[in-house]
Specification:
This protein has about 150 residues and is mainly alpha-helical. Among the domains are: about 60 residues, no CATH class; about 40 residues. About 55% of the residues lie in helices and about 5% in strands. A hairpin with a 2-residue loop joins strand 3 and strand 4. The longest helix is centred in the last third of the chain and has 31 residues.
């Protein structure tokens, strides 16, 4: 048994002559607003307020940005202004390092052992870990320098 597979599912059907249902509703809505303005306001104000409504309705119906309907752009603008702003990363200027009186400036690479701890054993273990890492880095640098000298 053979089945027909739908093709061109992204293309909307033309229901009202050359217009799709969305295009027809955008144009009918803007025309309805213009008729309401014409019935309630003098002709000068009808033209003044009706012209932007007509242009907006035409843009919604026919104008595309990057092959997407104009309504997607309007939605993105509204979400940008209404929605929360999340800044993932902001580069801050470096903080100046204040020099100690009678001594050199504190280097950010130097690790200090905390003075207060729950137990002396944790302090010793922490200092061994820190100094062990520093000694391992120093050994790696020395090995790298010796390897460069041999080559």
């Amino acid at each position: 048994m053979r089945f027909q597979i739908p093709q061109f599912i992204e293309v909307e059907d033309k229901i009202f002559g050359p217009l799709t249902l969305k295009q027809f509703l955008y144009l009918a809505g803007s025309a309805g607003i213009i008729v309401l303005l014409w019935r309630t306001l003098p002709i000068f104000f009808t033209v003044l307020f009706g012209l932007p409504v007509a242009i907006f309705g035409l843009m919604l119906a026919f104008y595309k940005i990057n092959n997407k309907p104009f309504i997607f752009t309007i939605e993105a603008v509204v979400r940008y202004f209404v929605g929360p702003k999340l800044f993932i990363w902001r580069k801050l200027p470096p903080k100046p390092v204040a020099a100690k009186p009678g001594g050199a400036a504190k280097s950010p690479e130097i690790l200090t052992v905390p003075r207060l701890s729950e137990s002396r054993l944790k302090t010793i273990a922490w200092s061994l870990d820190v100094h062990g890492v520093q000694e391992e880095k120093q050994r790696d640098r020395t090995t790298h320098i010796k390897a460069q000298m041999v080559v």
